[in-house]
Write a structure and sequence with these properties.
The complex is a heterodimer of chains A (about 180) and B (about 850). By secondary structure, chain A is α+β, with helices and mostly antiparallel strands. Chain A has helices at about 5-15, 40-45, 100-110, 120-130, 135-145, 155-175; strands at about 15-25, 25-30, 65, 70-75, 85-90. In chain A, strands 2-1-5-3-4 form a 5-stranded mixed β-sheet, with helices on both faces. The chains are: A alpha+beta (about 180), B alpha+beta (about 850).
């Protein structure tokens, strides 16, 4: 890159775009350099560092968040694509101080070791259970296949998702009594 | 040292009970902070310019244009940080930025520090580097053939970094007297850790007293103490004015246990600019940091009697070390050290050689140097069982090393639960009844075939010696008791996901009879915590655990003394449990833990205790005997079932049964998690993972480059490849472990690769004497069989190496005392003259800074 190009590049980067979106239930307005991905805006401009990155190329899955309820790789989505979207990150998973049943099950069953892929695993599992409350192990396996974990060997993650599904189903039954 | 290892689980307060780990909440809420999550006011960003040539002289580095670019605050080149460093004192051969040479594609040459990561990245393109290419050494066999140009001007000779040779007894005689001698050559390809978190470091100067403030470095490191030393050395700082904080690691597996150039560079930049400087590596750069599994070529000759008993063994290993020393000298010894600790080997010869090559440096990955020879040994035993028509399990069971015994190379075995591990996995899997027998498929057969394979292994519960020679504790724990009843445990140990913080809290809470929630752990901070050498060699549970028990026992004694005075009862009649101190003979006389602490503070003053741990002395007194000893070995056995397509060689792993001799499971879901995680990582190595290299086309420089420095192409198992795993924890408490516990984080990885190779043979009768064991290799072996050639894929020969004269050490049962009979300086034992002494790389200080 020549220095003139580099200067032009920098100038472009410094012009900010603005965006309105819902993050973890709150309406937010955010200004950022327009080339930024959703991952970068979440981590750098909204200080939501619970969303992780492992490659920033869409390979590892660690940056998954929910956009309008569906898991997306935030490193592959431009923030500009999220105007008006409903984005949920790991910071929005708890119910007050109470852990979501998925979080509690991950904590109890050894499904989080280093914890780095955990936010992506939890959100992806949440999207699955929101959609299919009684997902089978094969469905769990398939739905989490885009998130790599190097610590656990996945099995305790499957166990935790199954336990959370049972707890959520029981809670659902109580709600309908 | 350990507190009643013979206790039953239900006699403990917390040990052995499934429990949420102390850091679980932070991890499931996304609140755990990793290095790249840290942001400080006025923070700058750093990017590194990396070499595009694998081996070249640096003629000049021109940085004027980059200096003038927007947002750029500082450019550093090699001469700004000229002092070499390295993890091992014998190989300080790295510079934070290359000074005179680059040694692999990815070696850093310059650093740009700018207001934003984008500006730093853009300025990299404005730096001009004039390189004069040198001959590339692309693998270990080339290094043997091509002594010049040397990649380093130290090492045993030419491009050979290290050569070692040992004879434990007269091995030639043992092989001559064996009824059968089996000779095999194996190759184990390199692979990498692939922690999901990319390495990141933040350095800042605080306003502490003194002229220059103090340097703090937060980093994703497994070894804050060693990083502390490296920073002080490389930047010529008073170590008392350097603080290293090992922040939560997003996975380590050995890949974050060297001090890294990027850590030193941002520290230097922060010192020069007086502002915080952060770097986060890209995934591609993580592949260049590497320090992963060494590619190893092995030749193994084993003499046995007709009933399969080993009479003598000879092992030669050739390691492709990559461009720097790293842990390589230790890795070289490790390729030989643990071959003797599972089965009785009456006489043993080991020769190892590590070569420098122009590739990312290899180092310690989970199992450090031992999975490669373990693969060879366990596959060869399977071949011996087949040839002698013996059951592979019985072959092993009949010659297990005795508990509390010394091996031929003076490794000291304490408890050994390997027999029980073998019995559990053999029974659990139906191994004896369900094997297919290793028959080649009949031509025309297209139905998938199942096969079962068995393999075993062993690993250290912590390296017996520290990385640098010293007589100090390897782990220290300090406790502070607060009037609230809270106990804070300080320890330099590093949480990398394996659960070491949980072990620390558990050991303290168990001894004091309080809850995990009463404990605050503070770890991995060189300002605040006593030294622990770091999270490597599976050392933390045993060493930190014992130190924690000692500190907690001293704290309990202080509290007990105060309570005993108050109640007028003897201290030994007090029971600490359920957050209470109770008089055993009259449980109505009881005091809350908090009241007891207050009483103790009133009696003794402010309450604090320390504990420390140093491993027992090793019986291996010969030079090189420092690698391999440990307080106690863990053992594992695995049976793997595969289903192989006899046409394509494609296979699925159907199920894994694994037994692990853990001594005592401190928190069973975590222990099992370590076993399953090890199984997973072993499966990845067996099935698909490999760090391989290619030459760019001549018009693109022809350089030797990493074939796929990306997670998409460097394949690792996803959820879809992970089979069910049945875990058998064998608990035979070891008196040297905390509450009897041994290691679990590495050992269970080791049997996976050979168990799969043996299962493939059982299914379709072909031998893949290489790792990874890919479908393509199985298909090639099947194809060879149909053409009347041996049904095998793997290396066929081991190159000639001019081995040094072996150190001769008589085994314990032949009157040896652990010393060598011919111990004289290695220089005199080298096969060739002209070596340069091992040591520091030169400090290059130009008269005029560029």
């Amino acid at each position: 890159m020549t220095s003139a190009l580099a200067e032009g590049y920098t100038a472009t980067m410094n012009r900010h775009a603005t965006l309105s979106l819902k993050v973890n239930g709150d309406e937010r307005e955010v200004a950022f350099a327009p080339h930024k991905t959703l991952l970068e805006v979440l981590r750098e401009d909204l200080a939501l560092t619970g969303t992780k990155h492992g490659c920033e190329l869409g390979e590892c899955g660690a940056c998954a968040v929910l956009v309008d309820g569906r898991p997306v790789l935030s490193c592959l989505m431009l923030a500009l694509e999220c105007e008006g979207a409903d984005v949920r990150t790991i910071e929005g998973m708890q119910e007050g101080a109470q852990l979501h049943p998925l979080q509690a099950a991950f904590a109890d069953l050894g499904a989080a070791q280093c914890g780095y892929c955990t936010p992506a695993m939890l959100l992806t599992a949440k999207a699955l259970l929101d959609d299919k409350p009684s997902a089978t192990r094969d469905e769990i396996r398939a739905s989490l296949s885009g998130v790599l974990c190097r610590c656990t060997g996945y099995l305790q993650i499957f166990d935790a998702v199954e336990r959370a599904a049972r707890i959520l189903a029981a809670r659902d039954r109580e709600d309908h009594v | 040292m350990s507190d009643n290892p013979d206790k039953k689980v239900d006699e403990f307060n917390l040990v052995g009970k499934a429990r949420r780990r102390v850091d679980a909440r932070a991890k499931v809420t996304g609140q755990a902070r990793f290095a790249d999550d840290l942001v400080l006011p006025r923070m700058l960003h750093c990017k590194l310019l990396r070499s595009r040539l694998p081996h070249a002289k640096i003629k000049s580095v021109t940085t004027d244009k980059a200096r003038a670019a927007a947002g750029v605050r500082l450019i550093l080149t090699g001469y700004d940080t000229p002092v070499p460093y390295g993890i091992l004192p014998v190989s300080h051969d790295e510079h934070p930025l290359c000074t005179d040479k680059v040694r692999f594609v990815g070696d850093p040459i310059a650093a740009v520090i700018a207001d934003s990561e984008e500006e730093a990245t853009a300025a990299l393109d404005l730096i001009h580097v004039d390189l004069e290419p040198l001959t590339t050494i692309s693998d270990a066999e080339e290094a043997l053939r091509i002594p010049e140009p040397r990649i380093h001007d130290y090492g045993d000779e030419g491009n050979l970094h290290k050569k070692v040779a040992f004879d434990f007894g007269d091995v030639d005689e043992a092989l001559r007297n064996s009824e059968r001698v089996f000779e095999d050559v194996f190759f184990y390809e390199g692979n990498t850790h692939l922690a999901i978190e990319q390495h990141a470091t933040l350095a800042a100067i605080d306003d502490a007293a003194g002229p220059d403030g103090r340097l703090t470095v937060w980093s994703s490191t497994q070894t804050p103490h060693y990083l502390h030393r490296a920073l002080a050395k490389a930047l010529e700082l008073d170590p008392a004015r350097v603080r290293v904080v090992a922040i939560a690691n997003g996975g380590g597996f050995g890949g974050k246990s060297d001090p890294f150039n990027h850590e030193i560079v941002v520290a230097k930049a922060a010192l020069m600019l007086g502002r915080p400087v952060k770097i986060c590596l890209t995934r591609e750069e993580v592949f260049y940091c590497h320090r992963g599994r060494h590619p190893v070529l092995m030749k193994l000759r084993t003499g046995v009697s007709l009933d399969g008993k080993i009479k003598g063994m000879e092992l030669q290993t050739l390691l492709d070390g990559g461009a720097y020393g790293s842990y390589g000298v230790a890795s070289t010894f490790y390729t030989g050290a643990l071959q003797t600790v599972t089965y009785k080997v009456p006489r043993y010869r080991f020769q190892g050689c590590r070569a420098f090559t122009n590739k990312p440096p290899c180092g310690p990955k989970r199992g450090h140097g031992t999975p490669q020879p373990r693969f060879g040994l366990e596959v060869q035993l399977d071949k011996i069982a087949t040839a002698l028509k013996l059951d592979p399990a019985d072959l092993r069971l009949q010659q297990l090393v005795e508990p509390r015994s010394l091996t031929a190379n003076y490794m000291s075995v304490e408890t050994i639960g390997l027999g029980e591990c073998i019995r559990r996995v053999v029974d659990g899997s139906g191994f004896r009844a369900r094997r297919s027998g290793g028959k080649l498929p009949t031509p025309g057969d297209i139905a998938p075939v199942r096969g079962l394979g068995l393999a075993c292994s062993s690993y250290l519960s912590g390296a017996g010696l520290p990385i640098y020679w010293n007589d100090l504790p390897q782990s220290g724990v300090q406790l502070q008791l607060d009037r609230s009843g809270r106990v804070t445990a300080f320890c330099g140990a590093t949480e990398i996901g394996q659960g070491s913080d949980d072990v620390l809290a558990l050991c303290v809470a168990e001894i004091l009879g309080i809850e995990i929630a009463d404990i605050k752990v503070l770890t991995g901070d060189t300002d605040l915590t006593p030294v622990d050498l770091g999270s490597y060699s599976s050392r933390v549970t045993l060493m930190m655990g014992n130190a924690a028990i000692e500190a907690a026992t001293r704290a309990r004694d202080l509290v007990a003394k105060a309570v005993s005075d108050k109640m007028g009862v003897p201290v030994e009649k007090l029971r600490f449990a359920e957050r209470r101190v109770t008089f055993i003979d009259d449980p109505a006389r009881v005091m809350s833990w908090q009241d007891a602490v207050i009483l103790a503070e009133a009696k003794h003053g402010t309450l604090g205790t320390t504990g420390s741990y140093k491993p027992p002395r090793s019986a291996a007194k010969y030079k090189g005997g420092g690698v391999g000893p440990t307080p106690t070995y863990s053992y594992s056995a695995a049976v793997v079932e595969v289903e192989v397509d006899p046409v394509t060689g494609w296979y699925d792993v159907i199920k894994v049964w694994i037994g692990h001799d853990i001594g005592r499971a401190l928190n069973p879901p975590l222990t099992e998690g370590q076993v399953i995680g090890s199984v997973y990582m072993g499966l990845g190595e067996a099935l698909m993972e490999e760090s391989t290299f290619r030459r760019l086309p001549p018009k693109l420089s022809g350089a030797l480059v990493h074939k796929f420095p990306s997670m998409l192409e460097y394949k690792s198992p996803s959820t879809m490849e992970m089979p069910p795993v049945e875990v058998f924890l064998v608990e035979d408490p070891d008196s040297r472990g905390p509450f009897g516990a041994k290691e679990v984080g590495q050992g269970p990885l080791l049997p996976m690769m050979p168990a799969i190779a043996n299962a493939i043979f059982d299914a379709v009768g072909v031998r893949v004497d290489e790792v990874p064991i890919t479908a393509e290799k199985i298909a090639r072996a099947l194809d060879a069989a149909t053409k009347g050639r041996p049904a095998r894929v793997g290396p066929t020969k081991f190159p000639a190496v001019a081995w040094p004269e072996a150190l001769k050490i008589a085994p314990p049962w032949e009157g040896g005392d652990g010393t060598a009979s011919n111990d004289r300086p290695k220089k005199e034992r080298m096969a060739r003259p002209g070596e340069v002494p091992i040591g520091d790389a030169p400090i290059i200080r130009p008269e005029v800074r560029r």
